[in-house]
């Protein structure tokens, strides 16, 4: 195929037509000459079959950060490759590529870099690499679909996990609970650990009088927090998870809180499992070592997207009961909506509460609270305030119904949601109610 340069060359030849006695013959000769020169240029262009492509670089990146992927263009032929290279990615990958003109000598290679700043979670694949091989004069080029073959590559965009900044504070509370840090007294656990001799400062209520009589010395019981408990994070990926809370979907806020809870519970010695369910099980992660668990969690959560279907809470309860034979703490991340919970969750909730401790964790937009506290001066603001009061009243009714069923409810704005869920876990652990 010819380039715009051939058309420019033909146009310059057309300017000389008035100088010829036979313009039509002159035009035919000019066209023929341009075609011959373009054909020779096409023949001298490096063959695409001698070009190979390969990729290397980052395969994972956290949302909000940037990744670099390198594309290596190698010329295996005997002619110098003059080519235009276009590296295309999906729009949400936010790719800024080094696409452009390259010159590759025989048996050499060049590397182009693409910097990706994704705007969404999930897998962001490379779409296609197009190589256009030009001749030495730039009058003609070779281009063929599928040649050279595009090397497959995808970058997995992991959840943001902004709540990890709360980990030092929550871990400090956990250490106080464990008794390894003194803060207004010694931390008090809930499980018997060992007997030891009494020392000044011990709580006299911890004295074991029978052991003291046997040992002829004052012995006290030592305690430690509950360990080896099971914590199951259940993410509702149905239609309510698609609602945007602030600048992100509700599902992303739930993921952030689940990651914080899982990290904290693992450090506390508990085993963490995860389920993501709507009308089917979308993701399932079983507990393992601390670092391995977090890596598996973020990889499992990354491709999850809200499904515009009504969540099957019968399936949710059935899956939890089937997987968890022993008593566990079930943290269900969903929305406090009468339609979703009143008809779906409340009828099957007694089966779950009978065997497990259940927390329903829901987040709401802080704008709702602002609507109810803002002074209304116009009719539109009055109606907006009334709508905010009604929405919060409906949430309160659903929360009250859940509490009557023996469920702990965490209802917090998105900015405080992850911390509120972690606090609820620590409170239950301190009270030995897991």
TrEMBL record:
<dbReference type="InterPro" id="IPR002881">
    <property type="entry name" value="DUF58"/>
</dbReference>
<protein>
    <submittedName>
        <fullName>Lipoprotein</fullName>
    </submittedName>
</protein>
<dbReference type="Pfam" id="PF01882">
    <property type="entry name" value="DUF58"/>
</dbReference>
<dbReference type="InterPro" id="IPR013783">
    <property type="entry name" value="Ig-like_fold"/>
</dbReference>
<feature type="domain" description="DUF58">
    <location>
        <begin position="195"/>
        <end position="371"/>
    </location>
</feature>
<keyword id="KW-0449">Lipoprotein</keyword>
